[in-house]
Amino acid sequence: MRVGSTFLAVAAAAAISGCGGAAESAAPSPSPSQDKRHQLEAAKADCMKQKGFEYVAFVQEFKGTDQDDKRAAGDYQAMQKYREKHGFGVFSRHVYPQAASRGADPVSNPNGKIQSSLSSAQMGAYRKALDACTSTSIKQVLGLEVKSDRDYYTLRNKAARKAVDGTLNTDPTLVELASAMATCLKGKGYSIADTTPAAMSGRGQKEFLVQEDKLGREQFDDVPDVTPPANEDEIPMYVAPNLTPEQARPYLQKEVEAALDDLECGKDFYAAYMPKESAIQKQVNDQFGM
Fold first, then answer.
1. Which of 14, 29, 154, 259 has the CA that lies 20 to 30 A from 237?
2. Are the C-beta atoms of residues 241 and 1 closer than 8 Å to each other?
3. What mean pLDDT is predicted for residues 138-157?
4. Tens of pLDDT, residues 38-51
5. With the C-alpha atoms ordered 187, 191, 195, 197, is the resulting torsion angle positive or negative?
6. Confidence at residue 244, expressed as pLDDT on a 0 to 100 scale
7. Is the pTM of this model over 0.85?
8. Is the dihedral of CA 128, 133, 136, 139 positive or negative?
9. For the chain, how many structural domains are there in total?
10. From CA 95, how far away is CA 258, in angstroms rounded?
11. Which of 170-179, 185-194, 228-237, 260-269 is predicted least confidently?
12. 222 burial class (0-12, 13-18, 19+ CB within 10 angstroms)?
């Protein structure tokens, strides 16, 4: 993990982890999401150049595996195999840091090197220009009014939540399966506050992100002791601690146990929910160029 206080967006892992689309060996036509992302980066680079700053248009490409696709479809065996090692994918990032970049193109973002070479004063001016160019490029390509990346992701989350609330959380079959999953987990001693399908799908990862955040806030002096409240559509921000693999393993062991219990109770639920949820997230990501 990166040294220092690192902020992680909860929704990012599931909702926008495929930014740029999957890389293909045959160089197919770009998806709507890829095309918009390339347009956004090109517009941002042009804007920065006009302001006198260096910025390289860069779109991170990702390669999904067959197992990734199966998990996204709610396949029990694929989900079980993943959870036996990674749990909900929280503390495993510390135990298996090399896995965090799995699927990503090995070419690193050149803009990180550009920014790391700037002084504090230069960085302040650079970030101000980048925020302005981000706003301008999103308006130009997507027609959205935003002031920053955070605004952009908030709008994206709002669209996704509206779609999920209007379809998945009102689907009678999913509601019944989510309720049965909650009953099963309560029988195993887990506390369940919200039994809507979307809440049941994300409850496990959220629980361990909160634990990770607590460790991070205890470790760093430059962040608040308590997670600042986020508005409904904002991406909750958590602080990731610096943990060695040895320090993180006890937490991961508990996470794996909880993730496998969650899967056993939700086997039927995930099989029905995941394909529909994945389709919604893809549709929203295509709309927002993610």
1. 259
2. yes
3. 88
4. 999 999 999 999 99
5. negative
6. 95
7. no
8. negative
9. 1
10. 17
11. 228-237
12. exposed
Confidence of residue 184 (pLDDT cuts 50, 70, 90): very high
- The answer to whether residue 1 sits within a structural domain is no
Per-residue tokens: 89: 């994918």
Which tokens hold the place of 52? 């006198």
Q: Give domain status of residue 151, yes or no.
A: yes
Name 76's Cβ contacts closer than 8 Å, sequence gap at least 6. 263, 267, 270, 271
CA distance linking residue 178 with residue 268, whole number of Å: 9
- Residue 60 CA to residue 155 CA, distance in Å, equals 21
Tally of helices (H runs) and strands (E runs) in the chain: 12, 2
Rounded Cα distance between 28 and 41, Å, is: 20
Distance of alpha carbon 89 from alpha carbon 252, whole angstroms: 9
- Find the mean pLDDT for residues 232-261: 90
* Residue 16 DSSP code: S
Please give the residue range of the domain that contains residue 132: 6-288
Looking at residue 233, the DSSP 8-state letter turns out to be T
Residue 106 in tokens = 């090995």
